[in-house]
Design brief:
Chain lengths: 84, 390
């Protein structure tokens, strides 16, 4: 399955988490989302969001000076509201 | 209010196409909701926003997710320069810009210079074309950002962007490239994917939308810090309540431009040739920018009239029913010479004697002919009063 890529490069907390939450809300169970981010807080925020929202963190790795997070959507429509 | 006999100032403002206006009106009325709202009043504006995003993306061969809506092209230029530079500081402190960038781009680059960037300005030839060899020489291992204008707003010269982007990439592959199509997209074809730029500036006016609208098309992975922070609008790259009616208008205009741009450009250029012939029949008048109408933004004609001051000529033309702008729309009120005119080698008084005519497909031949006659009359009247006239 091709992962949907969410490009949060250049944005800071809480924007990357809101963007992946928005993407997860419009995705279905089993869909894979790849999050690109360069805010170091993503190392803390992404695992925490996956835990609280019930989605699966497949990987979170460094890519040069940024991070690539891979998440499998388990709940769909989960996460906090990104439209505000 | 009665309009002028010849309205030839479309780069400043242009009447909205009735189809664009009709698309916008519901969002000033029953569909007033915020696209951020979760209740039903938010649904139609949110959907309209995404439809407009898809239309604007289609106009320039981009993906909808790449489009960041802004309040006009000037904001998009600032977002591109400051946002890309801020998020890509690791690439170095070098900023390279052509000498004929839009004044907003040059101002943002000067601001970066005050913040510690090393700014290099690349010269142009007498027609306003950026020198690819000089560009290649200016880009080095510390260059983070390169700014290339597509259509120059004062003299109208269109750049051949392919060789310029290739020269930049050849000198430093990872340098971020901003292409400013804020005066051209909607009037001539622009293909974001083929350009290989990191950011593409779009302006509402040339597309046929409200002039206060614009967008920045950002290549995925380019890294862009937001200029305006706050909410999550525009994927966090531009916070603040969206201008839904304006964006819907921009989207409607983009759809129309895809269909009608080519025919409109042919007509605008024919009108520009007719106007140019008439203006150059007046002694001691020179055409600025690329001498061929095909080498300029469609409908764009800037001339300098010897021994006549541009703003005076503008007012004299207004008194004769012709609406135009002084040579530099952005610097006229400051009484300064336009940087683009100095860049192509003009000296005073030619730098201060320019007037800009911008035509669109809606312009009539009668308007052009009226402007030619008024120009000859106004120039003669002003020269008769000037102690400088030989």
């Amino acid at each position: 399955m091709t992962a949907r890529v969410v490009d949060a490069l250049g944005t800071w907390c809480p924007v990357p988490i809101h963007l992946i939450a928005r993407a997860a809300r419009s995705a279905g169970p089993g869909d894979v989302i790849e999050l690109l981010a360069d805010d170091p807080l993503i190392e803390v925020d992404l695992p925490a969001w996956c835990h609280s929202s019930g989605n699966e963190l497949v990987a979170l790795r460094r890519d040069g000076d940024s991070w690539v997070g891979v998440v499998t959507v388990r709940t769909g429509g989960s996460g906090d509201d990104a439209r505000h | 209010m009665t309009g002028p006999a010849a309205y030839l100032d479309h780069a400043a403002a242009s009447p909205l196409d009735p189809r664009v206006r009709a698309a916008m009106l519901p969002y000033l009325d029953a569909r007033f909701g915020s696209p951020s709202s979760l209740h039903e009043w938010g649904r139609a504006p949110a959907e309209a926003l995404e439809e407009a995003r898809a239309a604007v993306a289609a106009l320039v061969g981009a993906e909808p997710g790449q489009v960041v809506f802004t309040a006009g092209a000037t904001e998009a230029r600032n977002l591109a320069v400051k946002g890309l530079r801020g998020a890509n500081a690791r690439l170095g402190d070098g900023v390279v810009a052509s000498a004929v960038e839009h004044p907003a781009t040059l101002a943002a680059c000067r601001s970066a210079e005050r913040g510690g960037a090393r700014l290099t300005i690349v010269p142009v030839d007498g027609g306003g074309h950026i020198d690819a060899d000089a560009l290649r020489a200016a880009v080095d291992a510390t260059t983070a950002l390169v700014c290339l204008v597509h259509g120059q707003p004062d003299i109208g010269t269109l750049q051949r962007l392919g060789p310029l982007v290739a020269a930049t990439r050849g000198a430093r592959e990872e340098a971020r490239i901003v292409v400013d199509a804020g005066e051209t997209a909607g009037l001539v074809p622009v293909d974001a994917a083929a350009l290989d730029a990191d950011a593409l500036v779009l302006g509402g006016g040339p597309i046929g939308g409200p002039p206060w609208t614009g967008a920045l098309v950002v290549r995925p992975g380019a890294r862009l810090h937001p200029l305006i922070e706050g909410g999550l609008q525009e994927s966090g790259k531009r916070a603040g309540a969206e201008d839904v009616p304006g964006i819907v208008g921009l989207g409607a205009a983009a759809r129309i431009a895809v269909e009608e741009m080519d025919a409109a450009a042919v007509r605008s250029r024919a009108l520009a040739r007719r106007l140019t012939r008439g203006l150059l029949a007046v002694p001691d008048v020179r055409l600025n920018g690329d001498p061929d109408a095909d080498g300029r933004i469609p409908g764009h004609v800037q001339v300098s009239a010897g021994w006549v001051e541009g703003e005076s000529l503008c007012l004299a033309l207004a008194a004769r029913g012709v609406a135009v702008s002084p040579g530099s729309a952005c610097t006229a009120h400051a009484g300064k010479a336009a940087p683009a005119l100095e860049a192509i080698g003009l000296k005073a008084p030619w730098t201060h004697s320019a007037v800009l005519f911008t035509l669109r497909a809606v312009t009539s031949e009668a308007e052009v002919d009226h402007a030619i006659a008024a120009f000859a009359d106004a120039v003669a009247a002003l020269r008769a009063m000037s102690p400088l006239t030989p």
